[in-house]
Design goal:
17% of the residues lie in helices and 38% in strands. It is an alpha+beta fold.
């Protein structure tokens, strides 16, 4: 028997330690199909919402990529890394800071320099392509990577907590040895650090931003603005457009490590993503119409209009922006349509 075509979107809570591609590979294996993709990369260190499409729903992914997003992040100030997150190597500093700004001073710097429309230079270890090659591949090869500043919009940058303390000076991401509480309007004067430790401060923040914003770069730039340097020690994406970690039927996953000897005789350890309910992955998915409704505004059409759209013809509808045309009576997704001119809509993608 021919296997029936299935299409839909999965909202997966990506675990730490694997790439977005690793999650896609896990979905391919669970659904036994090749046509699977994701809407927006999450770094291996990051966790949270990864929207994965399969079948015809992969045609919706390019629209979801452009949705705004919300993150929870922890930024460690006083240390820099080459990747701007805890997966990188600590960079040497000219001096170790001994005085750290108050919470109110940090919040004032954020309000003045890191909210609204700003210019941001992405990290060189990013997925941006330069002449067909990923920036992170070039950076790992030791090549100079120069990325241009780009406009992004930060609609929310809220500090929820501030901690002062000491962190190892040899490796990034180690737990913070926390000091006593400091009033929000007072600077922290660090004492003498133990050998191998240096004073730092951490802020927990919630950031809502436009597509294309790099939270790693935000932490880096905040550190530079305060004269301390900075990098992320935690990043969790809790929302992509209308998809969130609280979405019903969200699918969880975990990371498994495998150690093996490669063909060069070198012992290698690699992580892979494992879906927690892989045997019932399709049961967690939104169907094609529900996927479209979560991705963009919907346009109900009748059977005659549906036939016209599927033949590439325009229909007499006055719309704005991009919409998904569907037949409510049959729960049938017909096409993605855009405004052609006043009073007319045209199909830009058609679903059989």
């Amino acid at each position: 028997m021919t296997k029936p075509d299935i299409s839909g979107l999965l909202v997966i809570d990506k675990p730490r330690g694997v790439t977005s591609h690793d999650v896609v590979a896990a979905v391919r294996g669970a659904l036994h199909m090749k046509r699977v993709g994701h809407a927006g990369t999450l770094d291996p260190m990051a966790t949270g919402v990864l929207v994965v499409g399969f079948g015809n729903a992969t045609r919706l992914l390019n629209y979801i990529v452009d949705h705004d997003k919300t993150y929870l992040a922890t930024i460690r100030l006083g240390q820099r890394t080459d990747t701007d997150d805890a997966d990188g190597e600590l960079l040497p500093t000219d001096r170790t800071a001994t005085v750290f700004p108050s919470r109110r001073a940090v919040e004032a710097a954020i309000a003045e320099h890191f909210t609204g429309r700003i210019e941001q230079v992405p990290n060189s270890y990013s997925a941006i392509k330069i002449n067909g090659q990923r920036a992170y591949d070039l950076a790992r090869e030791g090549k100079d990577v120069e990325l241009k500043a780009r406009p992004v919009t930060i609609s929310e940058f809220h500090v929820s907590a501030v901690r002062y303390g000491y962190a190892p000076s040899a490796c990034a991401g180690a737990p913070l040895a926390v000091s006593d509480d400091v009033p929000p309007d007072e600077d922290w004067h660090a004492g003498t650090a133990e050998p191998g430790m240096q004073p730092v401060m951490e802020i927990d923040a919630r950031v809502a931003c436009s597509a294309g914003t790099y939270i790693r770069a935000l932490g880096r730039d905040l550190g530079e603005e305060l004269g301390l340097g900075g990098h992320l020690t935690m990043l969790r994406r809790i929302r992509v457009g209308r998809f969130s970690v609280d979405t019903p039927n969200v699918m969880t996953a975990h990371t498994e490590s495998k150690t093996f000897i490669n063909r060069d005789g070198v012992e290698v350890t690699r992580n892979r993503a494992v879906l927690d309910d892989a045997d019932h992955a399709a049961d967690h998915a939104l169907d094609l119409v529900a996927s479209a409704a979560a991705s963009m505004d919907m346009l109900p059409v009748d059977e005659r209009e549906a036939a016209d759209l599927r033949f590439g013809r325009r229909i007499a509808r006055d719309i704005r922006g991009t919409m998904a045309a569907y037949v409510p009576e049959t729960n049938d997704l017909v096409a993605i349509v855009e405004r052609a001119k006043k009073g007319e809509a045209k199909p830009v993608a058609v679903f059989n």
